[in-house]
Amino acid sequence: MFRTMCVAIVTVAIAAPALAQTTHHITLNCNFNGIVHPGEAGIPDDPSGFRSISDRALDFTFGVPSNPVLDNYVCVDQPGVMDIVYLGNRNTVDYNGSGGAAFDLVPDGDEIGIQPTWLADPNQMGEQTTTLDTPILLEGPSSAGVIFQISNGGGSFDVVFRFQGGGSHTATLTGPDWYGPFNGQPNIGQFVGTGNVDLGLPNADLLLTEGTVDLSAFAGETLTEIAVRNQTNLFAGYAIVAMNVTTGGGLTLTGQTSCPGAGPAQLVATGGSGGRVAFVYSTRQGSFRIPNNQPCAGTTLGLGGTPTVAGTANGNPAVLNANNVPGSACGHIFLQAIDLNTCTTSNVIRFQ
Hints:
Blueprint: E1 3-4, E2 22-25, E3 57-58, E4 85-89, E5 123-124, E6 128-137, E7 142-150, E8 155-163, E9 168-175, E10 189-195, E11 201-214, E12 222-229, E13 238-247, E14 252-256, E15 263-270, E16 276-282, E17 285-289, E18 300-303, E19 308-314, E20 318-325, E21 334-339, E22 344-345, E23 349-350
Parallel strand pairs: 1-19
Antiparallel strand pairs: 2-13, 3-10, 4-5, 4-13, 6-12, 7-11, 7-13, 8-9, 8-12, 10-11, 14-15, 15-20, 16-19, 16-21, 17-18, 21-22, 21-23
């Protein structure tokens, strides 16, 4: 999965009893009607109707499709309303390799629509911010999940989490081209899609990607805003379809050690699936995305640098023991657990 060592380094943290897990479905401040819902196809010049973020779109004509991952989120399922957060510039996006899909100035009967009344400016490359109706207290292990897709080659973007008092955390998420190729890139599956730009006619399936961000290091903070920004592919359209924040419960990491002199140590992960759990560590906290060719590819850890696998253990609890841990590790190592069955991550704790 990452760099490995034969000597396991573990940490100590005596945690409070696990909290009940709560999933908060985020009501996004949507700025674009970019999913085809019932009655929205075939009328590209409808002044208040659907528009593609490029040349394609998800097709929710028959409702939000069922999917083991997507079922955990709440997507907009009504026609005639804003249904995604859009990053991009519809007038300059390169949708077929030969140029953009700039809005028509007047209706002319082709597949490209006029600029809709709900879009004051086609350029939506700037930061798009959702202020939470109800701020979320991050209790215990916490994480955020983002469902998104990217046209024209895929790319990356930043998600910014802002807290009461002025603090923030920024994570970068990456996704493939929504049209494939379906070659093992991180995604949650293929979904019914449309083509023909703003006509929204039935066409090839499209990918959706889930990005996850560990927020456990910010336990005790109150989340007030979530923003997306900094798209790396300036010729693509980005659609953020849904978002969750989960607090409490889940995988909880605790341990015992002998700092400051170190020596024997034990690491315990509770609340997992009962399968294999990996224990990984780094010298700093941060945001590390597991590479495509590794288990739980696409999952973002709360560790910086290139984390190292300390070891794995099975069960719930999953217990990893180590002997002769050097005293130099005390205060200088951060560690996190990953349930390799569910790709759930634990809180990050420090060796001390």
